[in-house]
Design brief:
By secondary structure, the chain is of the alpha+beta class. The chain is about 25% helix and about 20% strand.
Length: about 240
């Protein structure tokens, strides 16, 4: 199986594959060329999220995104910190060894504009008596695709990521989120709600432009203070 995080030879080329992240089903390859001018409110409680009812989870499509090379001058010059901490003690206890392992996975992505702390902080939240949790281990790579998209958007806009407001949500936590859909893509670990250091309107516009030029296939939702981005494998706007 090829490495989904493999980098491009050119900072303006993109390679997108709609596929199933957990099986070796057939793939569609799309090659595009990119030249750009120009970000849900909850994150949620236990790996029981794997049991939510919405079709066969192994068939959830995601998008492989190859990003600009590490030697590109686009984006941050200094890599994000690999250190994490400051999370609620009870939440940390509930995650067990998964917290260290997920941190290592996120750091292995070598994202230019997003740290492991940024991502994990979106999971370390509680609504009422329900804690959110890290995603099931077998789904970790799904978020890698979406984070690659967000990282690329940040580099192309030359604008830092301010906060990942929401990423994976367990079904129990998702049910506590006002306005969240019962079949939210956050529960499949392919979606983030993100804020950048610019208006959400600018982020939404830039994200849709990048997507429509071939960077990825997925949903882009416009909200007053953040933008929803997912890699469901089908283009949808709202």
């Amino acid at each position: 199986m090829s490495d989904p995080q493999e980098q491009l030879l050119s900072p303006h080329s993109i390679f997108v594959t709609a596929t199933s992240p957990d099986s070796s089903i057939s793939r569609r390859h799309v090659i595009g060329t990119l030249g750009v001018a120009a970000a849900a409110l909850c994150a949620s409680s236990g790996t029981a999220g794997a049991m939510w009812k919405w079709g066969a989870m192994n068939d959830v499509p995601v998008v492989k995104v190859k990003t600009i090379p590490s030697d590109s001058r686009v984006g941050k010059v200094v890599a994000p910190s690999q250190k994490v901490g400051g999370f609620p003690e009870e939440w940390v206890r509930l995650q067990g060894r998964n917290l260290k392992d997920y941190t290592n996975y996120l750091n292995s992505l070598k994202l230019r504009n997003i740290s492991a702390q940024d991502v994990i902080a979106a999971h370390a939240k509680e609504r009422g008596s329900v804690w959110n949790a890290l995603p099931p281990r077998e789904w970790w790579s799904r978020m890698g695709y979406t984070l690659r998209v967000v990282d690329r958007i940040s580099s192309e806009m030359r604008t830092p990521v301010k906060e990942i407001v929401s990423a994976y949500r367990t079904p129990a936590y998702n049910a506590r989120c006002r306005g969240a859909k019962r079949q939210s893509w956050h529960q499949a670990n392919v979606a983030v709600d993100v804020q950048f250091d610019t208006s959400a309107r600018n982020v939404t516009s830039a994200t849709r432009s990048l997507r429509d030029r071939g960077l990825f296939k997925g949903g882009v939702g416009s909200y007053s203070s953040f933008t929803h981005i997912d890699t469901r494998g089908k283009n949808v706007n709202w």
